[in-house]
Amino acid sequence: MFKKLFGKNDEAAKQIEIKAPISGKYIAIETIPDPVFAQKMMGEGFGIEPTEGIVVSPIDGEIVNVFPTKHAIGIKAANGLEILIHVGLETVAMKGDGFETKVSAGDKVNVGDALLSFDIDLIKENASSIITPVIITNSDIINTMDIVNDDLLSRGATTVLSVEVK
């Protein structure tokens, strides 16, 4: 009773806005040139064709995974939504070359906090694509998902998806 009376409800919000983690052009998930992502085998989401090599947090949450090859980071929101940011395609083969992480597993982050930086030109030379999938890896908890912006995205500022979890 007192929690509701004084506004100290600990239940996480079911609705969440996912901001752009990178500045660039929105890419529909179905058109990402990799069947694992395009066929949504890893989950719902979208892609970004980056115009700069900076990745920021698209949500408030906790870093749950920083891949040893530094090309991907997993974040979990308070409501349980899990997001994977996978910089480029076939970038695992680069073994971390051209990537610099700014966070570690267990770190708490807010929208806009720097997560990693990367060398776009090096990725263009050594990987199949610079397109960066942003995937909700536990899509089964999604109740509704709406695409809010499908044009040019500004890191940490542009809302791309509005998601409500079950």
Tell me what you see in this structure:
- By secondary structure, the protein is mainly beta.
- It contains 3 helices and 14 strands.
- It has helices at residues 2-5, 35-38, 120-126; strands at 15-19, 24-28, 44-50, 54-56, 61-66, 72-76, 82-86, 99-101, 108-109, 114-118, 132-136, 142-147, 152-153, 159-165.
- The strands form 3 sheets. The protein has an 8-stranded antiparallel beta sheet, with no helix packed on it.
- The chain is globular, with a radius of gyration of 16 Å.
Secondary-structure map:
Layout: H1 2-5, E1 15-19, E2 24-28, H2 35-38, E3 44-50, E4 54-56, E5 61-66, E6 72-76, E7 82-86, E8 99-101, E9 108-109, E10 114-118, H3 120-126, E11 132-136, E12 142-147, E13 152-153, E14 159-165
In short:
This protein is mainly β. The protein has three helices and 14 strands.
Task: Give the radius of gyration.
Answer: 16 Å
Helix content: under 10%
Q: Helix count, per DSSP?
A: 3
Mean pLDDT: 94
The percentage of residues in β strands lies in 35-45%
Total strands: the figure is 14
Biggest beta sheet summary: 8 strands, antiparallel
Shape: globular
Assign the structural class, choosing from mainly alpha, mainly beta, alpha/beta, alpha+beta, or little secondary structure: mainly beta
Model regions low in confidence, pLDDT < 50 over at least 5 residues: 1-9
SSE succession: HEEHEEEEEEEEHEEEE
Oligomeric state: single chain
Strand order of the largest sheet: 9-5-6-7-11-3-2-13
What distance lies between the first and last C-alpha atoms, to the nearest angstrom? Answer: 24 Å
